[in-house]
Amino acid sequence: MAVHITKVENGAILALFLFVAALQVSIAASAILLTATLALLVSLLILKNERPEIPPIFWPLLLYALATMVSVAASLDPLTSLQDSKEVLLFLVVPVVYRLARGRTASTLATIIISVGAVTAVFGIVQYGILNYDHLGQRPQGSMGHYMTFSGLLMLVIGLATARILFNTCDRVWPALVLPALGVALALTFTRSAWVGACVGVSLLFVLKDLRLLAAAPVIAAVFFTLAPVSVTERVYSMFDLQDPTNRDRLAMVRAGTRMVQDHPLTGVGPDMVQEVYANYRSADAVNENNPHLHNVPLQIAAERGVPALGAWLWFVIISVRELIRGFQRPESRTLAAGGLAATGAMLAAGMFEYNFGDSEFLMLFLVLLTLPAAAAYSPKDSVSIPRDSTRHRSSFRQDSALQA
Fold this sequence. Notes:
405 residues; mainly alpha; 69% helix; globular
C-alpha cells in the first residue's frame, strides 16, 4: 500500500512539473495536465485518508467565484456568461500547488518556469528578427495565441528571475544568463502595459533588496534607448501622447465602464457581456465601436461581475500581499516570496491598462507564483484542516519528511 501511495504521489508531482512547463507553451496542454494533476492529487488524498489543506489566499478566490456565479445568474445572457466563467476552475491551481510543491520542489518549479520562459523568449526574438513579427500589426507572440498573453507571461518570469538573482544564495547564474533574453523579448512585443508592469515589479525588488539599487534605473533606461529599435522607442513615447488613438480609447473605456457600474452595481452586466452592451455606453469620442473588455482589471470586474466581486478580488490582493510578506521573512521562502511580490506589483500595474486577470494562461502562472512561497515554507501547523485520522497523518508526515531529507 505504501509503495502504491508513493507512486501516486510521484506521478502527481511529475504531472505538476509538466503542467507548469506547459503554461508558457500551450493552453490546451496545460489544461489537460492540470486536470491530470488534480485527478492524481484527489487519488492521493483518498489513499492517504487526508483532507485537502487550503492556503489563506484561496478563500477570497472562492468568494470571487461565488460572486461570479451570482453575476452569471443575473446576466443578460446567462448561458454565455456561464461558459465564460469556467476560468474560476483555474483557482484550483492554488490547492494543487500548495499540496504538491512542498520544500525543494517549489524551487525546482521556479527553475522550470524561468527555463521555459527563456526558450519562449528566444522564439519571440526569432519571430521579430526573422519571421517579420516586427510591427504593431504583427507582434512576437511566442507560442501563445496573442502577443498580450506572451508579454504578460514574460513580465512574470522577469520578476521571478530577478528575484532569484537578488535574493538567492545560489542558482543565480542561470537566471542572470537568461534575463537579457527575457527583457529583449518583452521589449519587442510593443506591449506597453507589460513594460510598465515589469518596471514596477523589478523596481519593487530593488527596493526590497537595497533602495540604492534604484540608482541603476537611469543607466538601464539609457542602455535601452541606445540599443532599442526606433519602432520600439517610438512606442515608448506614445505612452505619454494623449492624442494616441489607443490612449484616447482607454479613457473612453473608463467612462463607459463607470456607467455600466452605475447601472448594475451589484451583479454587473454579466461575464463576457461587456462587448454586448458596450455600444450602449460608449461616448462620442471613443475610437473603437466595440471592445471585448475594458483594459482595466478593477473596472472590468466591477462592470462585468459587480462591486461585491471587486471587493472579493481586492481582498484576494490584500491577503496575497500579507502572505507574501510573511513568506519573505522566512529564509526558506524568501526568494520565491520576492518573486510573488514582484508578480503582484506587475499584475496590478499592468492591470491598470489591460485585463490580465482574465487571461487564463497569465492567471494560472500568476497563481502558481503566489502559492510557491507558502508551499516551500509549509509545516503541519500551517494547516487549517484537520485530517480524519490525526495519528495516520503524523505518520505520513514523518515518512514524507524522511523522504525529503
